[in-house]
DNA sequence: CTTTAGCGAGAGCAATGCTCGCGCATGCGC
DNA sequence: GCGCATGCGCGAGCATTGCTCTCGCTAAAG
């Protein structure tokens, strides 16, 4: 049930081939990493000449960009699902537990899709700056983290944080606007004070950088030889970060 | 005053050329990034043929490894200096302030030497795992962080942390041994209980992952458009991390 | 039915990492 | 002081990459 009738046969063929192309590239990246991705190689995998690929994608970097967007959406879905099933549990998880679940899910995704993680959160590929089309997809993880902090605030469970003193006037107005839109949701409930929203936004930053830093350290070997139980160590890092922004993260005894 | 007499002229020439080679590679990396480093290009810069370079270095990756070690030592020196001048100030900085200074120095180094940061903390280059020769140099940053936490403990200024409950039995014995050696120092003072040392080691982990995550986020554009004052936001992240492991970080009115 | 637009293939260009064989010169052992 | 061996630099060459261009063919559009 396509929105527009089966369009032309050509367009269908084109879409189909593009999908195959992306799939092949994804496979090669999973096997060898983004830096090794060779357009000629995926062309060979597909049984077409290398020049034919250029009918469907502008350049190697453009192909990478497509895959970056895919990866952002993938991890976005993973953390959204983790957060959703935490809050949908019976009894619903408190925000601290949700944060822990989200963090574990993020790290788990990165472990399973190392090269996708590298693609989006690792060293940017040589020449290009992240195209603007990617930022929308990148925000999904941020949104989940922000929602968790906001939920804690709403339940009155948010403790004080070391950053409270400097949070005011820190974020750009655009950022706060975006956050207000998220918190307010589609319905216009009682207005949430901007200062509170800003404070919540600032609190999500350490959560994000912790996710990024912990996962990078884990995957890139900076924790090598330090422990036999990486999961437990990462849990400790997550717990510390959660506590630092006022979440109560239950560790150990469960 | 060489330790061994001027050795042979050949050896001196070899050492000299190797130094030139590294310098040229360093320059090119600073200009274009590690991924773009071309052996042929540095050969051209040096006015020799590309094949001549292979007399001095096994491969492109081996050259990268040499530069990785240099970069580790560079950042190690930077953070050591920052910590030293903080504690040497009058009055000496408390551990929380030292941590802030160390964090700022780390981020500052990364900003000034973006490509060096990418080299050591970014996505590992394609095929190879970090050669064991690099780990010794990598520990210097860890040592500074650990010493800061240890100093706070010694002064009785270390607050409780969310990870206290799970810290025991977390780290490998080798890791704790290494830390004991560091804390004990060259002289054999009163024995520090291993459990305390382990707790201190676990506390340095969030500090390191915060450094890594905050710097990665900053340099790789994940904080884009969120604030106009990146320094202040990063300070907030550092403060949160410090507080989460029991350091008192004075921010704002400081 | 004719024209036009899309598409695939192959050759080709400028690079890359790395190997190999050739000569030259330097320095060590005799 | 001399001769051989070793170190060294060079150029050619191979396989690979991203990307461009031209040539036909085929299928859609008018």
UniProtKB/TrEMBL annotation, chains A, B:
GO MF annotation: an example: transcription cis-regulatory region binding
Domain HTH tetR-type: from-to ranges: 15-75
Annotation: DNA-binding region: 38-57
Alphabetized UniProt keyword annotations: DNA-binding, Transcription, Transcription regulation
Name this protein carries in UniProt: TetR family transcriptional regulator
PROSITE patterns, per the entry: HTH_TETR_2 (PS50977)
């Amino acid at each position: 049930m396509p929105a527009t009738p089966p369009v032309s046969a050509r367009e269908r063929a084109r879409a189909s081939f593009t999908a195959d192309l992306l799939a092949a590239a994804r496979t090669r990246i999973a096997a060898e990493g983004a830096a090794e991705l060779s357009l000629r190689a995926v062309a060979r995998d597909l049984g077409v000449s290398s020049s034919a690929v250029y009918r469907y994608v502008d350049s190697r970097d453009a192909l990478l960009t497509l895959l970056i967007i895919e990866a952002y959406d993938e991890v976005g879905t993973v953390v959204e699902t983790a957060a959703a099933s935490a809050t949908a549990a019976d009894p619903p998880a408190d925000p601290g537990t949700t944060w822990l679940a989200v963090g574990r899910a993020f790290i788990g995704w990165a472990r399973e899709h190392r090269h996708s993680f590298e693609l989006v959160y690792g060293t940017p590929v040589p020449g290009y700056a992240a195209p603007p089309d990617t930022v929308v997809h990148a925000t999904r993880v941020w949104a989940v983290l922000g929602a968790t902090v906001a939920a804690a605030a709403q339940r009155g469970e948010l403790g004080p944080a070391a950053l409270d003193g400097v949070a005011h006037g820190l974020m750009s107005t655009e950022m706060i606007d975006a956050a207000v839109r998220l918190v307010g949701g589609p319905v216009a409930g009682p207005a949430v004070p901007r200062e509170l929203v800003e404070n919540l936004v600032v609190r999500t930053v350490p959560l994000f950088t912790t996710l990024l830093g912990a996962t990078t350290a884990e995957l890139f070997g900076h924790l090598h030889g330090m422990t036999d139980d990486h999961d437990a160590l990462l849990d400790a890092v997550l717990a510390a970060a959660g506590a630092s922004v006022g979440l109560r993260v239950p560790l150990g005894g469960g």
